[in-house]
Amino acid sequence: MMNEFAGISGDRLRSFVERIEKLESEKITLTEDIKEVFSEAKGTGFDVKIMREIIKLRKMDPNDAAEQAELINVYKRALGMQTDMFSQAAE
Amino acid sequence: MMNEFAGISGDRLRSFVERIEKLESEKITLTEDIKEVFSEAKGTGFDVKIMREIIKLRKMDPNDAAEQAELINVYKRALGMQTDMFSQAAE
Amino acid sequence: MMNEFAGISGDRLRSFVERIEKLESEKITLTEDIKEVFSEAKGTGFDVKIMREIIKLRKMDPNDAAEQAELINVYKRALGMQTDMFSQAAE
Amino acid sequence: MMNEFAGISGDRLRSFVERIEKLESEKITLTEDIKEVFSEAKGTGFDVKIMREIIKLRKMDPNDAAEQAELINVYKRALGMQTDMFSQAAE
DNA sequence: CTGCCATTTTACCGGC
DNA sequence: GCCGGTAAAATGGCAG
Question: Is the pLDDT of residue B46 over 50?
Fold first, then answer.
């Protein structure tokens, strides 16, 4: 009854909200840490912009080869061809 | 070479794909046009974020908008946040 | 092989990059945790979208929030949209 | 004076808003057109999901080779190496 | 109806 | 300090 409006519990809501806010503040800390590392690297002579490129490319790189291969299979499947010789024949 | 496998035509596939890509590129053009209008409005002193909010509200069913606003107030009250200018405690 | 060019160390670069990638992966974990909390709240009957709005408001400076709300009303009035329950024309 | 509140012109605002809404409605039309093409393709026996894959991969494909090459140059630049033999020597 | 993916919006960062 | 572009978050739409 107390701390409840229109059928929702203020305590439960507050608990969820505060948990999220705590996690978000931890994220902000990490963001700051990352900035510091960039800053330190910059002070050592590295180019921050290029470092960001490297990190971005490292993230996507592993996918590219697979994607190239996938494209071929995708076309084959689209055209109704088997994509490998072990494909299931009938179920 | 024959552009056909398992009775499915690569030409037909290509045709569909290209039609879609054409439509998608037109969508991108419109997206850019919209950005330009926002940019022009901004240059004239309007607040773009507020404009977006207005446009969103114009799209919404008025009842839904009211319901949503009220739900926000319910949650605010549940958390003890001020919801309107008449709610502050006596001084 | 020597991992060094023009007086800059590849090892140092790698070290910076890996430190950043580690921090970024921790951020991703937190992002997932946040999603889970929202999901749990949703399962308990809360409206996630409204919760997000509440959290945003709690983050904002109250004056800024009020200013923004007022600006929305200004725009609404400029367009002849109803802004409050006392503004409807006489019946 | 008329149609102006708090120093903003309702007419100018309305003009911007309506231009944007018009462009948005055209976008919606295109979205519907795209859906129809997919639907037609599906009716002809194509797998929509796979078609989406194809279109997505065609969009990103041209970038991949360039990105692979870029990664190498990016590392070189990060390590202070010249990325090509014609780089400016001194200015 | 739920989760997933694309789009859209917001916030951030670096350069001018 | 603004502005652009770039990455993150959030919203909405679609398939299963």
Answer: yes
Neighbours of C74 (CB within 10 A): 18
Two structure tokens written together for A76? 């084959």
Q: From CA C36, how far away is CA C20, in angstroms rounded?
A: 25
Which pLDDT tens digit goes with each residue over C24-79? Answer: 999 999 999 999 999 999 999 999 999 999 999 999 988 889 999 999 999 999 99
Reading the block at residue A71, the tokens are: 């494209």
Q: How far apart are the first and last CA of chain B?
A: 87
Please name the residues in contact with B8: beta carbons below 8 A apart, sequence gap of 6 or more.
A78, A79, A80, D45, D46
**Tens-place pLDDT, residues A13-27:** 999 999 999 999 999
Determine the number of helices (DSSP H) and then strands (DSSP E) in chain D.
Answer: 2, 2
A61 touches chain D (CB under 8 A): yes
Length of chain B in residues, anyone?
Answer: 91
| Residue A8, helix vs strand vs coil | strand
Q: Tell me the C-alpha distance between C10 and D8, whole Å.
A: 57
Name the E strands within A2-70: 4-5, 8-9
Q: Are strands C4-5 and C8-9 parallel, antiparallel or unpaired?
A: antiparallel
Query: What CA–CA distance (Å, rounded) separates A2 from D13?
Result: 46
Distances (CA, A) of C48 to A38, C42, C59, D79, D82: 35, 6, 17, 47, 52
Subunits with 3+ C-beta pairs closer than 8 A to C: A, B, D
Model's pTM, two decimal places? 0.84
Look-up of token digits 């509440």: C54
Considering only the beta carbons, identify the residue of D5, D8, D81 that sits closest to C6: D81
